[in-house]
Amino acid sequence: MRLHGSKDFMKYGILAPVVIWLMLFLIIPYFNLLMYSFWKNGAFAVEHVFTLGNYTKFFSVKRGSSAPVWVLIDTFRIALTVTVCAVVISYPLAYFINFGIKNAKFKKMFYMLAIIPLWISYVMKAYSWTIILGTHGLLNSFLMWAGITDKPVGMFLYNDFSVVTAMVNIYVPFVLMPMYTSLEQIPKNLIDASEDLGCNSVRTFFKVVFPLSLPGVITGATYAFTLSMGDFLAPQLLGGATSSTKIANIVQLQFGTSNNWPYGAAIGVVILMLILILLALTGKVEKHFSKLDIEGEKA
Amino acid sequence: MKERNSFGKIILIAAVILVLLFLYFPVVIVALYSFNKDSINSFPMGGFTFHWYAVMVHNQPLTTSLVNSVEVAFIGTCIAILIGVPGALGMHKYNFPGKKALEKVVILPMMLPGIITGIAILTFLEMAGIMQGRLAVILGHSTFLIGTVLPQVYTRLRQLDRNIEEASQDLGASGFQTFFYVILPNIKTAVFGAALLSFSLSLDEIPVTYFLNGVFTTLPIRILAMTRNGFTPEINAICTLILLLSVFAVIFSNSISKKDEVYAKNTH
Amino acid sequence: MKKIILGILSAGILLLGGCSRKKSGGTAAIDWNKTDFKGEQLNLLTWEQYADKSFVEPFEQKYNCKINATFFASGDDLLAKLKAGGGSTYDIISPSGDMAGYLVDAGMLEPVDVSHISAWNDIPDTFKRSDVQKDGSVYGVPYLWGPDYVMYNADVIKKPLESWNELWDPQYKERLALHDDISNIYMIGKMLGRDAADEQALYNMSDADLAYAKDKLSTLNKSIRKYWSTGGELENLFMNKEIDIAVGWPSTLKNLQDQGMNMGWCVPKEGCTGWFDRLMIVKGSKHIQLATLWIDWCTSAQGEALGSIATTFSVSNPKAADYMNDDQKKVAMVSGMDQFFKTINFWSYVKNREAYNEIWTDVKTAK
Fold it and tell me: Which chains touch C (3 or more CB pairs under 8 A)?
């Protein structure tokens, strides 16, 4: 009896801190945010009265093309662009490290090269693009020096192009990691078997490697999408007149100068819901593709 | 057939080189231009100097923010370890209702954009009477750092050979003794790796900190403000320094964890 | 397990319901002869121009204290930071007219004991605006003021602008920068001549006018390279040759000229808006005496002179002229001070601030 009692104590004892902490500082805050989004923003302080006003304000289309809903859709578009670019850029590198290098030492070296950018400061990466893309920055100076252009091109910076470029640069390492892991877990003998059966490496790739790597691709793409949806720093640093205010910036404004916390909470909840739905969907898709894995082994 | 293969290989290698260039070029530029004599960054570089590093060291708000960042990173990592490691152990040893939910919830701050977690914690703390500042930042950081430590340690625990644990208990060791003398040594590199990762994540964190900090400046927030302050080429210098530290941290953490993985694999 | 979770959840909710903010403050008897504050720290929340070494250091030395300055980028930014920090974080703030009245009404300030502001009687009455006086108490002391005017790179733009409408000229495509602030809406109001009869009309614009302002400013977006939020950012934009023309403040112009740029400025014929900054003490400040002494120093003849020299802003204490040389007086419009003052429509508090902010956000997200 005593042993049973102390075992329970151990069990609850070591789990309690993490459960309590996450309850207090994660679960409750997210629910609190939901509650906050239904409150009213008074003249001097937030009033704890129930209102749907924040949501109707967000979803209203009265404000023409500037309606926050359109900003959300525009941010979707940007996030999608960033995701596609990041996936397309990361895949060759992940593939190469896994299958293109035989030497274990080089493999390790390239792997490190691939993950170091993950640890490089966000601000450094974002800020560097202002140096490269500016009117008298590197790209323009170089183009003029090489005689390719005779005037600086303003089009590289302070618009959606610079925002997307910086975001792709920042989020590629996030995409690369799960992709790499996924490719790494493909059993070598499957590829050997495929080649033994007469497939060249291209067919092997499309029939064996790529489908098996899909879970990793999906995970990576999800990271890139959700993170770029919520990114307010890159647009602020690299955006111009109309490209510096994405949906996350509108939330940022509500907690800053526009001083409308309930409205900001409402937009935050909308973004949160969308991302949770996305995570649930991609989770299901991943599960489906992981099943392929098992079936493949059966064959 | 062979020709197609090698053509394909050439394309692949070209693509890889381009990707690596794309990843590293901006960072290398900042590092290079930290030595630029001109305060305007254009091509070609104006000359070589260490001047901006000296300016950086004397920039008091910058050094204060660095101290703040290290403090938050250290405390946050400690809390994350103290809470996350037992949590991982509990999840490894026991099954309980809500275990799957816990697995998903703990990594939620990593999956969601920082702004969502930031405003959630902000509104909560405001109602709880905790104002923006040092404490709020530490609480916020600890919360997502747990999401770094727990999953990593949990994964390592699952790789451990169950037999060792059972053997230890068969030989009469109590739960505590088993933990300290058997489990802990085997996971210590995972814990250390997770701690290192947590520390560096905390040092570079911006979105959550942005909403919780008030006047308490951390290093990345300070650097962000500097990009708007006019004529501060020492930004390049501080970024380069952080870059070097990050590179060393990655190489170091990778070299010690690989050893442990090999050991774990060999004991299966 | 479930019981524990329920318990924690209800504890958490109780915690939320029950807790209240800590109230700080409290004034002890003040000894006005004290000059040694033993390293006390005075916290400023100001425009970035108001913590220049030239007038911070003499004060720090005289009273043996330390000045810690945090900057805000606009009136709304000030409010956000003030709400987050309160009296325990900040002692002195320097809002412009767009926020001052609101802060008084919201009860976020301590009254200033003007008997200890030596320059109080030197400051002309016209500068002592009523928005910071309530129930016989004074909540803000006039400090420095200036215009929102057009500044440009004189190497690229050869002649000054005659009308604000010229900003829409295609030649400035992607070479213009405006302040990321609702003050641009006042500019449209001025262009419409709305303040001809009543100065305050700019801060009370009708919905129709606001809709017009939104459309007009949206069409300007294609000329805007970036909206600047701090003076430093604007300086960067000019120095990096990202822009040739902007609407901004004299201090930026001065800094650019100090860096060797050939800058010009002008006020178009429709006139301009401007700002009059007041020094105020935050409610609950823990250093009320030191804060009062800071205000006393800054508004003194010498203090204002130093402030004006560092920023080229205009002074509120005419005696500051005694400490300025001819060039400095010229740049700060000291001799024509009253005349210059009359040409500026100073920012006032916008009651319908939410609408103005919405319009401004819409401009920045217009397609």
Answer: A, B
Distance from C-alpha of B147 to C-alpha of A58, rounded to nearest angstrom: 32
- pLDDT above 80: residue A64: no
**Element spanning C179, H or E:** strand C176-179
A vs B, Cβ pairs < 8 A, gives: 235
Encoded tokens for A44: 């001097």
pLDDT band at B230 (very low <50, low <70, confident <90, very high): low
pLDDT digits (tens, 9 = 90+) for B168-214: 878 877 777 777 777 888 788 889 889 988 998 999 999 999 999 88
Neighbours of B49 (CB within 10 A): 14
CB contact under 8 A, C79 and A257: yes
Whether B30 contacts chain A with CB within 8 A: yes
Q: Are B25 and A121 in contact (CB under 8 A)?
A: no
Residue A183 distance to chain B (closest CA, Å):
16
- pLDDT, tens only, C274-288: 999 999 999 999 999
User: Which residues touch A246 (CB under 8 Å, ≥6 apart)?
Assistant: A71, A74, A75, A78, A163, A231, A232, A235, A239
| Whole-number pLDDT of residue B75 | 97
- The full set of domains in chain A, from first to last, is 68-298 (1.10.3720.10)
Contact B227 A123 (CB under 8 A): yes
- The stretch C152-179 carries a mean pLDDT of 93
**Residue A293: pLDDT band by 50, 70, 90 thresholds?**
low
Count the alpha carbons within 13 Å of C324 in the hemisphere toward its beta carbon.
29
How many domains is chain B partitioned into structurally?
1
The sign of the torsion formed by the CA atoms of C128, C129, C130, C131 equals: negative
Calculate mean pLDDT across residues C121-127.
90
Alpha helices in chain C (DSSP H): 2-18, 53-63, 75-85, 97-105, 183-191, 207-220, 231-239, 250-258, 288-299, 301-311, 326-331, 337-343, 353-365
Backbone angles phi, psi at C192, to 5 degrees: -80, -5
Is the separation of the CB atoms in C147 and C250 below 8 Å? yes
Superfamily grouping for domain C147-274+348-365: Periplasmic binding protein-like II (3.40.190.10)
Choose from A27, A62, A66 for mutation: most chain C CBs within 10 A.
Answer: A66
| Residue among C228, C236, C237, C241 with most chain B CBs within 10 A, to mutate | C236
* Contact residues for A277 (Cβ-Cβ < 8 A; gap 6+): none
Q: For residue range B77-119, what is the model confidence (pLDDT) as tens digits?
A: 999 999 999 999 888 888 888 888 899 899 999 989 999 999 9
Mean pLDDT for all residues in chain B: 85
| Longest CA span, chain B | 72
Q: What pLDDT, on the 0 to 100 scale, is given for residue A292?
A: 58
Give the mutation candidate from C361, C363, C367 for the A interface (greatest A CB count, under 10 A): C361
C19 interface with B at CB cutoff 8 Å: yes
B96, B97, B228 ranked by CB distance to C229: nearest: B228
CATH topology of domain C37-145+275-342: D-Maltodextrin-Binding Protein; domain 2 (3.40.190)
